[in-house]
Design a protein that fits this description.
Layout lengths: L3 H9 L3 E2 L5 H6 L10 H4 L1 H13 L4 E3 L7 H6 L6 H16 L4 E6 L14 H18 L3 E7 L2 H14 L4 E6 L13 H10 L4 E5 L3 H11 L7 E5 L5 E3 L2 E3 L4 H13 L4 E4 L5 H15 L3
Length: 295
């Protein structure tokens, strides 16, 4: 388990490439039931195979298949009884592919609940959901934490508090999804997000998912607003529904152009989100190696 300082030094010597989409590859492998984290408990070999595919193309950082695995999300999918198996199994499935020496993040996303006063969930209750999930994953041996694709700052701040209780010695990244001219659906700008998340104790801040062009607008606003390392995990374009199937329009070459813009803004970590497959990320790895001057 890497301590915060060790991990932050590793990315400072970068930039570093994180793996890409998990869901689209599990969908291609046959998952259809709704909450893709279920396979971390019931079909871990399929999850391991996805991590192995990203390891093969040169990814350096990895994330557990647990994005929608907080208790409210599992309850909504009818698989709350698998919570511990999913949390712990997601770590084990990743380690089976990448071994003990690659940096592995516990991945956690939004609960789908609204916090008070807009909803019925208190910040303390929300904090507890993240603390519970991440404590199990820290116990299994993750090296860092990424809280990703949040739209409400208040929920992400609660998630940060829960994550810090679960992992006082690990680096925590906090990212938001920006879709509306560089703002979240709740109107948060990149500058506002960077400043609030830094104050809440994040070690890295950044953008995740959403329209990549809007994500890059938000990232450009974040860069001068904070001294924290930046993280970008971009979608392969804006998804399109064609004959009932979701498609992502950016091919690997087009995706590389998005990644180059993020790298030009100084990100310490560049990864992939929805639709970004190993074919997409292979080009990103080559670009990053060239910029670092790797032999």
């Amino acid at each position: 388990m890497a301590k915060r300082g060790e991990f932050l030094q590793f990315i400072a010597d970068g930039p570093r490439v994180c793996e890409g989409s998990m869901g689209i590859l599990l969908f291609c492998a046959g998952y259809r039931d709704g909450n893709v984290t279920e396979w971390s408990a019931t079909n871990p070999a399929a999850v391991t195979a996805v991590h192995a595919a990203y390891l093969e193309i040169g990814a350096e950082l990895f994330q557990t298949n647990s994005f929608v695995a907080n208790r409210p999300m599992l309850r909504a999918a009818g698989i709350e009884h698998l919570a511990q198996d999913i949390w712990r199994g997601s770590v084990r499935a990743a380690r089976a592919a990448i071994g003990p020496d690659h940096y592995l993040a516990a991945n956690a996303g939004p609960t789908g609940l609204l916090l008070e006063p807009y909803g019925d969930t208190s910040p303390e209750e929300c904090e507890g959901y993240f603390r519970e999930q991440l404590a199990a994953q820290v116990d299994e041996g993750v090296d860092w934490i990424i809280l990703e694709t949040f739209m409400a700052l208040e929920e992400l701040e609660a998630a940060l508090a829960g994550a810090r209780e679960a992992a006082p010695d690990l680096a925590i990244a906090a990212t938001m999804a920006f879709d509306r001219k560089g703002h979240t659906q709740f109107g948060v700008s990149g500058e506002q997000a960077a400043q609030r998340l830094a104050a809440a104790g994040a070690d890295l801040v950044g953008v995740n998912c959403g329209d990549p062009e809007n994500a890059l607008i938000a990232l450009a606003a974040m860069a001068p607003a904070t001294d924290l390392p930046l993280l970008a995990q971009l979608n392969a374009g804006v998804p399109e529904l064609i004959e009932g199937v979701t498609h992502f329009p950016a091919d690997p070459e087009q995706y590389l152009q998005y990644a180059k813009q993020a790298l030009d803004l100084g990100v310490a970590i560049i990864g992939g989100c929805c639709g970004a497959t190993p074919d997409h990320m292979r080009l990103v790895v080559e670009e990053v190696r060239g910029r670092r001057g790797d032999a």
